[in-house]
Amino acid sequence: MKTSCLVFVIAVAVTALPSPAGTRPGYGGQAAQAPPVAVPPSADERRELEKKLTELAVRVKALAARKADPALVADVDIYRKAAEYIGRFPEEFATKAFTPDTVAQEWAAKTLDVFTWNFAKWLRGDVRVKDDRFVSAGDIADDNLILFGDPGSNSVMARVIAKLPIRWTKSEIEIGTRTFSAADHVPVLIYPNPLNPKRYVVINSGHTFGDEDFRGTNAWLYPRLGDYSVVKANGDVALSGFFDEQWRFK
Q1: Which of 111, 131, 155, 180 could form a disulfide with 35 if both were Cys (CB 3.0 to 4.6 A apart)?
Q2: What does the alpha-carbon distance between residue 247 and residue 165 come to, in Å, rounded to a whole number?
Q3: Upper half-sphere CA count for residue 63 (Cβ side, 13 Å)
Q4: What is the pLDDT of residues 157-200, one digit of tens each?
Q5: Interval 30-39: pLDDT, tens
Q6: Could you tell me the maximum CA-CA distance found in the chain, to the nearest angstrom?
Q7: Which conformational region is residue 102 in: left (phi greater than 0), alpha (psi within -120 to 50 degrees), or beta?
């Protein structure tokens, strides 16, 4: 939608992960802002969505009729299901942005799309996606949160950013002793959730292996980034590193 941004919080309960060992004070950041107000799609936008939904439904039926590879049918059908869900609950996906579209929002949308697609295809499950406005105290208590967007578009991220070891403003990103332009870089990291240190918060990342790796062996399914990273708009890694056992920079 032209005047809206897609904002997601994926709550993923990963019981196999050990509890975070301590926390580390952050550098400070932006103050939390009020949750965004839902912006319903226009009539033209809804017609475009319904048109795409019809096209995808026809394509899925045609593939099934030709007895195409079930994996291929599933690949197409997941987009039909997503369009159908957005059509039924547009208020959960359309929120007016506090800031203009940024490289972080573009990166988040692309990364989330690949993450959910690969998760459904290869891990045979659907990730649980929530609008940032609907993340509850129960979600924070029980789940690890994967936050997509930036502090201006994601209200949950705005609540925690000041307590993460990162300073992220509209103009720059500071991690450790390094500073990067926010105009063409995006921070990616995992850290104990400041709202609940027994759980984790992840910023702008799902698993960092992709479709080609899933097609290989399990030996290829390993993280491509460290605990914290800064990536360029084109996906190149500008910085990547690990925290120590106390979640401090090494």
Answers
A1: 155
A2: 9
A3: 16
A4: 999 999 999 999 889 999 999 999 998 999 999 999 999 999 99
A5: 444 444 555 6
A6: 58
A7: beta
Joined together, the tokens standing for residue 214 give 């899933």
Q: Which two tokens stand for residue 60?
A: 């899925």
> What are the φ/ψ torsions at residue 218 (nearest 5 degrees)?
-60, -20
How far is residue 238's CA from residue 121's CA, in Å, rounded to a whole number?
A: 30
CB distance 24 to 141 below 8 Å: no
The structure tokens 């939608």 sit at 1
Better-predicted residue by pLDDT, 71 or 98? 71
- What is the total residue count of the chain? 250
Cα–Cα distance, 124 to 70 (Å, whole number): 13
Closest Cα partner for 124 from 177, 78, 174, 68?
78
Q: Does pLDDT of 226 surpass 70?
A: yes
Alpha carbons within 13 A on the beta-carbon side of 181? 5
Question: Residues 50, 56: contact at Cβ < 8 Å?
Answer: no
How far is the C-alpha of 167 from the C-alpha of 109, rounded, in Å?
22
CB 195 within 8 A of CB 159: yes
Rounded Cα distance, 24 and 64, in Å: 53
Output the pLDDT for position 19: 40
Q: How confident is the model at residue 98 (pLDDT cuts 50, 70, 90)?
A: very low
